[in-house]
Task: structure prediction
Amino acid sequence: MTNKYLFEKPLQEALIKSRPNRFIMHVLIDGRLEKCHCPSTGRIGNIKFEDIPCLLSKSENPDRKTKYTVEAFSLDDIYEKNKSWIGINQTKANSYVEFFIKSGMLGKMLGKVKELKREVSLGKSRIDFFVNNRDYLEVKTPLMIIPTQGHKNHRENNKHLSNFDRMIKHFGDISNSIKGNSRAILLLCNIYDAEPFKVPKPRDAEVKIVKAAKKARLLGLENWQINLKIDKNSISLIDCFKLNLF
Result:
């Protein structure tokens, strides 16, 4: 098995001209402007998507309203030949993680994996992976914290999420699942070479989620981080390491 997750077809480089709404990006492809699907409906860093290089995948589904999906963007100059890319396709993150689990490359985190199930019920939640009929693994792709400071299109944004009910429920269900020799892991998946995650000082609206995370940690929830690299042809593993957040 290859140590890289290979795309069926190479991604195409293009240029994002605007993001008029959460679902659409206007992208310049070979001189023509095209509506493309944005696979993340939330905030992506603090960047204004105007003349931003990107990588696209093309769908062969004739019924799709948009032919292309924006898979990644770059903070490098348009004319830089060897750009560094930041993946934004949150819906694909679990497929990437699954690949590296099955390839044995996440042994530091999971040990030897003999059985792997996806999307399993746990309390009132659905957890991404059930490993060896014992351990629970939940994957999060935190695009809001992508560092864009220093870029000409960086825009300060003081708006923070205020509804954390779903995440708090996840913390409760997954931490309460820890029994005997079982484990529960929250994995932050970055599709770029990110710095180790640090818990920011919470604002009033965020105190509740921080308390829930601390409680889960005391019950045994482990926090890990994985950094992946995306290019036109593949996804590869940069690093996987444990976080000590609280």
The two ends are 37 Å apart (CA to CA). The chain is about 15% helix and 35% strand. The longest strand covers residues 234-243. The CA atoms of residues 58 and 110 lie 34 Å apart.
